[in-house]
Amino acid sequence: MKCVTLLKLCGLLLVVSLGCGNEPESGEVPTASEDGGDAAGGFAGTATGGKAGNASGGSAGSIAGGSSGKGGVGGSSGTGATGGTSSSGGQGGQAGVSGQGGTGGQPVCTAETCPDGCCSTSGECSHYGCKWYGVPCEASACNSMGCDNESQCMICEPGGMYGTLCHACEPDCAGKACGDFDGCGSRCEGTCPSGQFCSVALGKCEAVCNPVTCPHGCCTAEGKCAAGTTDDACGESGKACAPCPSGGGWCIPLPGQYPGHSPGGACQACNSTTCPWGCCSTDGHCALSASHTECGHHGAPCVDCTLAGGPCVAGWNQGSLGNTSCTNCEPSCAGKSCGDSDGCGGACEVACAPGLVCVVGRSTIADGCHACGPLSCPEGCCTPDGACVRNDNQHPHACGWAGAACIDCGNQACYSTGCGSCGGICMGATCMLDGCGQLCPGAANSCGGGAECKVIQGKASCQFGSPPCDSVSCDGCCDGGVCKVGNLPQRCGSGGVECSDCVLKSTTCDTVTRTCLGCTPDCSQASSCGKSDGCGGVCNAAKGGTCPSGSSCDSAGSCVCNQASQALCPVGFPNTTWQCIDVASDPANCGGCSNQCGAGAACVAAQCACPTGQHYCYLQWGCVDLLHDPEHCGYCGMKCPSGVSCTDGLCGSCPGGMTTCGSECVDTATNAKHCGQCNVACASNQCAAGKCVCPGATTACGTVCTNTDVDPDNCGKCFQACSAGQSCVGGQCQ
Predict the structure, then answer these.
(1) Among candidates 304, 307, 298, which has minimal Cα distance to 279?
(2) What is the mean pLDDT of residues 431-444?
């Protein structure tokens, strides 16, 4: 059995666990044959007392036992205590030596011990969301999804076209001291005495600027901590600030251990590695705060969205805000090089010269053409000619990972680590190939919902219904809409044509070429290109395949329009014909067949284009002004509340003190659907003074009206729940 005693040493309250079996009582001295009691070694630790000593208190650390007493394991290190004197120990007893300090303990969560996270109620440092410098986790206005591109705190509420409306959290530092919590995930930078500066990282005033007091910035000549991200004062991790030399690059914020928590800056050229959370302006700066005139992501060239047709908006990317670009802008990379601006805030990923790989949007290597290797091809392998082949387990002849040289697995499966046996990559009865071109065992029944697991163009996928038998889905020939291998005498053919009966032609099927032996192809019929030549093959240019007017049959058996800007499109219904249409300028077939432009839009260079100052919002809405149209404010279809104007792509404030809740202006003092705040609905459908009003003797607990006299989940008062098995009687748990 253990006894617990509280000791107050040097202003610290220590919990001491003493053995209560054979231990001497207070004031007694153990003899040489008795063990001293367990004593706490620092914070939450224990120490076993040695023999023949008298335990006396240690200063803010472990309480040592007698000779060779062991300090508490799991506590914070403390100073050794003096042992008992020979007069206080047993006869002839030696003086006790200092106890061993505790090791491995959990430090107290403070701004010093938790600079990159927040402190939970249990005293642990948590690295999540956008809370820093040891602020209280539970008290922060942020949530794990409410951070912007720089991991700064934002407030997100339900509403809007995409279900969430976010706005920047406004810090509250009025009248607060240095280090006080600002309510937005950080600490206030309050005033300090002369000769000192406010170290936000430590949450207190400091006199000396160094890596400890200024871990996220640099030290100025005046001895103060600066952000370290300006051209005239650039630096990191408490080092001296220095201006960027002329022509030596701009001060770029460096990535920290956690996104957005930069240690400062360095003079570097702006690219995807030095500016992963923003775009590079024309003068080489890294623009982290997206604006309508400087918009983009992953170090791509910044774009002026006022010229691109829409405001700058940060979209969601894997749970966090990212991919900042001009709203609904159509990227254009025709004729551009790898890494060039796509016109919308991103970079073009197009083919490079032979032997080089196009890399875009990676924080480990700058955008542009690079030799194939670990940085340019991290998810695949490099072929002998310098190409990068992504490892999707379906390339057995080009297998590898992390930019290593590709190896040929032959008929074996391709793993990320090398070659393996067929079927080894199958994970249960999922719809996938085994690495050797065959479906995994049981895959045919793994899709559910009436779908089937099928292989189309070398990939396994769940398909609803049978795909049409054509050259895309069938390598053999089609017999009544069903794909056959095409190597039988009565079902001979390839390329998805109708099967030919070689027996009727008094011959048989060549199982290699899958054509009828000695058969003369016939492609004289109208529009024969791509159809069966009567012998199991496809009518093409060499066989005299014919096409509609304005087009010609190529060697693969496809009709191609004679003019590069045209495409064969279906015209008319139900008597459809195929005609060559100029998809570069036809608003009914803009960029492709049947791609119709919306109201007010013209087809320019194969894209639906709007007049200057307007943006294309699909066929549904056509051309709109996203900067000023309250029906499409900032986004296509983003409607402002009735009577609220749209300025610079943002809805204005509601009139008369009303609150914006989604696309409505409401009075949260009386609105039963938005009582007190947006989306708080009253069960009683009554709201007064911003609180739900419940009928009779019931009380509003959140959005529920309940009787706190008998409700075990709200017994006596709201949210006071009774223990399991208890009832609530008269507002008391029994």
Answers:
(1) 298
(2) 76
Residues with Cβ within 8 Å of 222's Cβ and at least 6 positions away in sequence, in order, are: none
DSSP character for 500?
Answer: B
Residue 503 phi, psi dihedral angles, 5° rounding:
-65, -40
Bridge partners, residue 158, by sequence:
164
- Residues 445-458 as b or e (16 or more Cβ within 10 Å = b): ebbeeeebbbbeee
Question: Which 3 state secondary structure label does DSSP give 400?
Answer: coil
Q: Which helix (H) or strand (E) holds 306?
A: helix 305-308
Nearest C-alpha neighbor of 46 from the set 30, 64, 29: 64
Q: CA-to-CA distance for 153 and 130, rounded, in angstroms?
A: 6
Residue 148 Cα to chain centre, angstroms: 12
Contact predicate 518/507, CB 8 Å? yes
Give the sign of the dihedral formed by CA 226, CA 229, CA 233, CA 237.
positive
| Phi-psi sector, 475: left (phi>0), alpha (psi -120 to 50), beta | alpha
Lowest mean pLDDT among 228-242, 271-285, 423-437: 423-437
User: Which residue type does 7 have?
Assistant: L
Cis upstream peptide for 574 (omega within 30°): yes
Distance CA(483)–CA(502), nearest Å, equals 17
pLDDT tens-digit series, residues 670-688: 888 888 888 777 777 788 8
How far apart, in Å, do the first and last CA atoms of the chain sit? 32
pLDDT of 515 > 90? The answer is yes
Other C-beta atoms within 10 Å of 493: how many? 32
State how far the Cα of 32 lies from the Cα of 47, in Å rounded to an integer: 19
pLDDT value of residue 103: 44
- Sorted by sequence, the CB contacts under 8 Å of residue 36 that are 6+ apart come out as 23, 30, 49, 50, 51, 53, 54, 55, 65, 66, 69
- Choose among 535, 536, 531: nearest CA to 546: 531
Tokens found for residue 163: 């279900």
The three-state (H, E, C) secondary structure of 71-117, written as one string: EEECCCCCCCCCCCCCCCCCCCCCCCCCCCCCCCCCCCCCCCCCCCC
Q: In angstroms, how far is CA 648 from the centroid of its own chain?
A: 28
Under DSSP, the state recorded for 538 is: B
